[in-house]
Amino acid sequence: MFVVLSLCGTAYADPSGSRIAAGTHFTIYGDAPADAYALLAGIDANYQAYARGGQSGDSVGDMLGKAVDGLYQEVSDILDIHIYSFKGAIKVFPDQPALARFFRQEHGMEFKERSLYHFEKDVIYISLADVTVGMLGHEMAHAIISHFFVVPPPAKVQEVLCGYVEYSLRKSRGSLP
After folding, report:
1. One digit per residue, pLDDT tens: the chain, 177 residues?
2. What CA–CA distances, in Å, run from 67 to 6, 12, 21, 91?
3. Fold for domain 2-172?
């Protein structure tokens, strides 16, 4: 995924759509408020574990913001790289075809992946229909790695590190085959 971004040479559009949640590290955009519920369900059935300190009256947007912040902290712990001042965005598309249409309209290119992180914009683009905690954690790992190193590691090295994060998240949730 990172290689595609490096080769295309064009900047991606700023996140559009409605803001459905905001946390300390990410503002999350989607097409409808219902996306917040679906994203919570997609990233982890036990999202309440992330929302430590939450109040019983928290809105779904507040819970999603806290859940994404918690996942960001977990990814930081797995990598042992902590960037407390990081700010980025997550743009949620309904499915992979909608994500592919975005790339085709904005850049005239075919895109077959389900998610990606764009370094220059600090935006994670993700398919809601395909999202998993491992997938989102993988993209967050790209964000952390890209901001930690003065010269980001080569794409293959990043994929190894991000794959390790994805594996660790799946293993901690007992979702390995």
Report:
1. 443 343 333 333 446 678 999 999 999 999 877 788 889 888 875 555 555 555 556 788 888 998 999 999 999 999 999 999 999 999 999 999 999 999 899 878 899 999 999 888 999 999 999 999 999 999 999 999 999 999 989 999 999 999 999 999 999 988 777
2. 30, 26, 10, 16
3. Collagenase (Catalytic Domain) (3.40.390)
Q: What does the DSSP assignment read for 62-122?
A: HHHHHHHHHHHHHHHHHHT---TT--EEEEEESSHHHHHHHHHHHHS-----SEEEETTTT
Sign of CA dihedral 1, 111, 15, 47: negative
Delimit the domains of the chain by residue range: 2-172
Token couple for 74: 């977990």
Could you give the 3-state DSSP secondary structure of residue 18?
strand
> What's the rounded Cα separation, in Å, for the pair 68 and 47?
9
Residue 174: C-alpha distances to residues 47, 68, 169, 171 (Å): 15, 20, 9, 5
